[in-house]
Amino acid sequence: MAEGPGLRDRATKVLAADHFAALGLPRTASPEDVRKAFVDAARTWHPDRAPQGDAAARSVHQQVFARLEVARNVLTDPPRRLKYLEELGRPQEKTDAAKEADLAFRKAEVLLKKSDPAGAEQHLRRAVQLAPENVDYQTVLLSLRVKPGSTADELRRLVGELDRLLAKDDRCARAFFLRAQLKKRLELPKEAFADFGRAAELNPQNIDAAREVRLYRMRHERSAEQQLQKTDADDGVGGFFRRLFKR
Length: 247
Prior knowledge:
With 247 residues, this protein is mainly alpha-helical. It has a domain at 7-88: Orthogonal Bundle (Helix Hairpins), CATH 1.10.287. The protein is built from 13 helices and no strands.
């Protein structure tokens, strides 16, 4: 079990690692190796392995387990695994302008955490000006336009803008996550689920995205089970006559 003083440190390392390292595997590991490593890791990190009554430890276990699920799902799916390996191999050198833009963006993030959207917007606009192709910066700037009272039409327009951003960069986890949130508000659960899933793949540390995926699957499985129970009940006299008249 993963309890003890080093619990959070071990969890932090797993959450920060790439998919292979999170499962303790080399990049040459086979899909079967991945599945076995996931089962081994689940013995440590499954939420049920957290100490009973320890809410903080259970939360850590949930975060790590969700992250491991994403790693397993990506690495056992050949097309997604190939794409992920390509992403890992891309160089990430930055120009001076890109570095300045990154600094402006980080300042904006700090101000957002301090509930200062107006101050954050100034830095975000500077970041976008310096790095106009960076979809992350544009996504966070766009998110400032999302309000609790936004109408359905306003939300749809924002979804359209995110569609255009993702057409430029289909690896932007922030854009997928924001679009998923908007689609959820627009009561498009299936589409929201797809975007939450992609956001979780691209950023395994996005626990909110992983949780939304898990909740959707739980609801879907529950609905399927209820439908099966209904079908079983219909297999009585009423079901017999329905089948008879379908012939």
